[in-house]
Fold these 3 entries.
Entry 1:
Amino acid sequence: MEQLKRRIDTIFNSSHLSDEKLQKVCQLLQDEISYYNWVGFYFRNGEKEELILGPYVGAETDHTIIPFGKGICGQVAVSNETFVVPDVSAQDNYLSCSIETKSEIVVPIFKNGENIGQIDIDSHVINPFTKEDEDLLEYVCTRVSEVI
Ligand code: SME
């Protein structure tokens, strides 16, 4: 994980535009962690209480706009807390992106103390996420808040 963090640093320290950095980080995470099958960012739409899909890798999703409170992502927009879902079939308030998705983790991004977006990972494996994943993704979110 430390080596992966250094590769993430290299992307953030590069001269790419911020959306390109986010796209490259999505690709790196999906390439390096076998159970990360969809990796993407959602950001708050200005003052509106909705999230808009940002850079991502993985299957196309219908959920390009998510109202606050809806699905796992919408709940994190309101709770300001990381949400680990070991088994999506056990969730009532869940927006399905692909029938292959078995689990999900969503980590909020804070800038100046405000919840401005999140990273969302879907996995085809049940219950794969550990504290190490939370730690890695929180690290990514901190780096993201520095470039946007
Ligand atoms: N499953 C998410 C929707 C986004 S897709 O996974 C890409 C949710 O319940 O909010």
Entry 2:
Amino acid sequence: MTTPESLPVERSSELMTRAERHIPGGVNSPVRAFRSVGGEPRFLQRGSGCHVWDADGNRYIDMVSSWGPLILGHAHPDVLRAACAQAELGTTFGAPTALEVTLAEEVCRAVPSVQMLRLVSSGTEATMSAIRVARGFTGRNRIVKFAGCYHGHADCLLAAAGSGVASLGLPDSAGVPPAAVADTLTLPYNDIGAAEKLFKAEGGRIACVIVEPVAGNMGLVPPQSGFLEALRRLTATAGALLIFDEVISGFRVGLGGAQGEFGIAPDISTFGKILGGGFPLGAYGGRRDVMEQVAPLGPVYQAGTLSGNPVATAAGIETLRQLRNGGGALYARLNGLAAGLAAALRAGAKEAGLPVYVSQYQSMLTVFFTDQDAVPDYDAASRCDRARFGRWFHHLLDHGVYWPPSQFETAFVSAAMTPDDISMVAENAALAFHAAAG
Ligand code: PLP
């Protein structure tokens, strides 16, 4: 794949050479390595508002937002102040703090299905723990997930996962024993009939269904009408639990998450990303009787040295406070910017004569390089033209737009963006469509 490199990238290149000596693939999370788009990653040094600067001093508009957390943009002054003030008081205690109480209260208020909440340090920890709780609560082993949904890298969830796993073309991972996924049943996203059929055959053995209520890890795939409702009905009837993995959608598609937007109450929800305001923090929570299973109240063990870390918690509280104060107007502005960008992307691709499907929901969007008129599931997403996506991506990058480096990821609009920033992205994307068409 050709990768036009008119921006100076010597420093990033040197760093990559050094990184590859001591860090697998030079990165600490696979998708950062640009393997699915070719070329070398930029080493980022600084972020402010909606911009990032790399080690060579190049500036980009950041559509990655650290893969979702930075809904307020980089280095938001109030979030920084809250984190720094707490760091001055101590960075970790391994004992309860008032901050954890405040954050739990904030989340329970924003997401009414969550009556009790446990803080952890990542989204992976949140989903892994939620599955354990569901199994402990129901006394059943089987879990159901959807192809293309990524829920972090716990063994039992690394079956037909999306995100970096999809880009690497690994349906699974080496090192996951077959026994670890033997009880993981995978269904196509948005396929109500397939879910009904599975529940008819296996319903009594299923502990839980885990789903991204707005899927962001096979590119953006929103739920079709009736899909989440069907999952709610099927799980309730079978005595299984419904887990909404809101690690991306939580506080992103609205303060109440996807469940608030679609009006469906899951039994357990998982959070991460925005919850920590740019610091490592995750959480799982839900029905009181379910969460009462968690140690020390109940028999399901789960613990963490840095769980509820005070600096991350302080940043999370301030982020949620900003979102709550911004209210509907803040979300409406974000969603309006994203809708405008989606329309401009569609027009730009049409003008270049390039078939694309632009998926947009609230402030999330993906440009699928495909002539299909819908992308409802992982099968459809995986039929996209990844080489063309790679050319488009590199053209954008070379013109100051940092788009997620994979066809199977979602771009995020942040509150730090202005209509001018969105126009700049749209104009460069239009040129990139021409470059990608060639
Ligand atoms: N769940 C979803 C929906 C995610 O998108 C991710 C990460 O991208 C995770 C869980 C795992 O979160 P983390 O990377 O913080 O472990």
Entry 3:
Amino acid sequence: MSFVFEPNPTPSVAVKRENARFPVRRIFCVGRNYEAHAREMGKDPTREAPFFFTKPADAVVDDGAVVPYPPLTYNLHHEAELVVAIGRAGFDVRQDEAWDLVWGYAVGNDLTRRDLQFEARDKGRPWDWGKAFDNSAICGPVHRAAHIGRLEKGAIRLSVNGIVRQEADVADLIWSVPEIVSILSRSVRLLPGDLVYTGTPAGVGALMPGDVCVVEIDGLGELTTTIGDPAQ
Ligand code: MN
């Protein structure tokens, strides 16, 4: 088998305290999964079925990166999130089986072009241009579930230039990790390398060039991103 040009390298994220990296296959993201964030987005936080959107696998960015301010937006937002890394295939898995698919956890930042997302939402268009742009899936090192166990609680917080903007607890997720994995697996066959961004708490806000954004989840460490000047 040959290709007409060299295939792009497999996107990947770091693994905590290991040299090998976690190869990324797909990125799924849960919309509105904390009540207070649903309210700040102007939506009813009742427990309606979760919905998902996706980002390209090569949108992943490691801890410590400088991310250029993306094009087409005047309102780039941060979203602190717990990321679940899938390590085993599963289709239509029950909640009590869902933990078996989880390879690990990471701290994530679901960068969002909020103005484009709202425009799409209001016009009934896809969210892709608001969510699925280059460098939009920031992801810290993955911690093996074998070391962490079942992640069901823990403080999650985000600061910009040292000022805390988002602060909540993973226990406040409307849909828990096994519920999300189970529900997602009814729609697609989950496969090793899939990442799931589980949703952000309240307090999302704008980032500007020069800002240093730090996301932290208890037990998973910090994820630091600097916003650079717009890409040339
Ligand atoms: Mn999000």
